Amino acid sequence: MKSETIEIADLATILERRAEKGRVIAAVVGAPGSGKSTIAEKLAGKLNAVRPEMAAVLPMDGYHYDDLYLGPAGLLARKGAPHTFDVDGLYHVLRRMRARDEVSVAVPVFDRKIEIARAGARLISAAVPVIIVEGNYLLLQSDPWARLRPLFDVTVMLDVAEGLLRSRLTGRWNRFGLTGAEIQRKLEDNDLPNGRLVRTQSAVADYRIVTV
Description:
Low-confidence stretches: none
Strand order of the largest sheet: 1-8-7-2-6-3
Number of domains: 1
CATH superfamily: P-loop containing nucleotide triphosphate hydrolases
Distance between the termini: 23 Å
Oligomer: single chain
Strand content: 15-25%
Helix content: 25-40%
Mean pLDDT: 95
Number of helices: 6
CATH class: Alpha Beta
């Protein structure tokens, strides 16, 4: 099975139609630097322009383990790798989203300026019909990530060449004041290997958005 190439506007139309029958949970997946957050917010914006509060974004990055754990565990240098996330926490929140029997669900949001997830930073109402979950590893086929896949109604993979990812990530870490050596280390030892894992070990998505 191959993913169907799609544009954001067409994807928004599909989600809008699916939402007429009930809540839709969509996964937007891609490597670090692929633009997941930007595309998820654009997609939500298009839906909310049709009808206010039609869509909300749930970022996977909110489920980063905190540095207070990662440091003593010797995992700080690999922060952002699959084993540095609370996958079970995300799984149970998605099940709560699916059940839709609470007035709202509070979710964490990662603050990149301080590299810390802010607990309860966003409330998602039961009235919102489209939930857009964005993150690197939502379609990984290995446990414990694999049990997330049945919770998604629509899946999208962002197809971005590694050269463009490298350029974007270099710019990101430059803006955060890292030295050239620090940036090189982050790219080669963590970000780019994580991106290759996403591309090679994820389940085939329903759709793909190509960036060149």
